[in-house]
Amino acid sequence: MAANIAVPLVVYALAAFGPRWASLGGLFLALIGAIMLVTRYFIGFARMSLADLPAGTATVLMVWVLIMFSWTAGDLTRTKRLREQALADRAHRLEIEAQHERDLAASDERAHIAREMHDIVAHSLSVIITQADGARYAAVANPAIAPETLATIAATGRTSLQEMRRLLGVLRGDDEASTRPLPGLGDLDELLLGIRAAGLQVEYSSLGEARRPLPAGAELTAYRTIQEGLTNVMKHAGPKAQATVALVWNNRGLTITVQDDGRGVAALTPSSSPGKSDAPGGGNGLRGMGERIKLYDGTLSSGPVTGGGFSVTAFIPYTEN
Length: 321
What we know:
The protein contains seven helices and five strands; from the N terminus they run H-H-H-H-H-E-H-E-E-H-E-E. The protein has helices at residues 2-17, 20-42, 53-141, 145-172, 188-197, 216-236, 284-295; strands at residues 201-207, 242-249, 253-260, 299-304, 310-317. The two termini are 74 Å apart.
């Protein structure tokens, strides 16, 4: 009969595509139905005797084997389908995670490039503007100052152009781009010479000895912190200002202090939270400085100094998380 053929198909369909309770329920009903089938149609329950029990039992077992085969095939189909769906979902999740990681890496790289571009452009333009303004007024009284000032402007612009070309070459993936190491604490003398040539008097001191070298990225952060601090002095401290740069090494790390005696208090708002900007409206200079230091578990504090001037203090530990 068609109903007898339909039972194994229904058991298979429930096991393969139905919920778990329907699969087990269908299996249980089919096993009970096998007993009812044999006792009702093959032997007859009313006229059944003990002599018919072995044959009836064998028939029930044969039907049960057919039902179990149908249910097992359906359950295997279900398991395979769920496995394929799980693999597809996992591949989709991995694709989403990979895209998320790419977005985070791109965002981090953009922030890194923005910091580098700001450090290069802001520092060089500050030196050039300071030199140009100073030369414009000084050349009236002493025209011989103009050639020296123009030479400083040209040297600063040439150095900045080289750094910009190197950075852009790396971004383009140019194999011929310069791979000169990024500046570190060993390049402070060159930085201070350029700042002094721009007309800012800078006193430099270093106390203590490093327990071990800082990572290359931390050294770059220290260099950029000093560069940004001196650039802010040139931009905000006013004429005849003097600056001091102090490096103090201890067992925990490096403390950097950049301080001036000018009128920078009027231009900057005090702050003592790491990673936050000190400039009104969230200036990019000190914000970038704070972001750099925060990457290496450091702290940044800044604010006005009693008696005039502005101070920026950064601490960079030896270890990084």
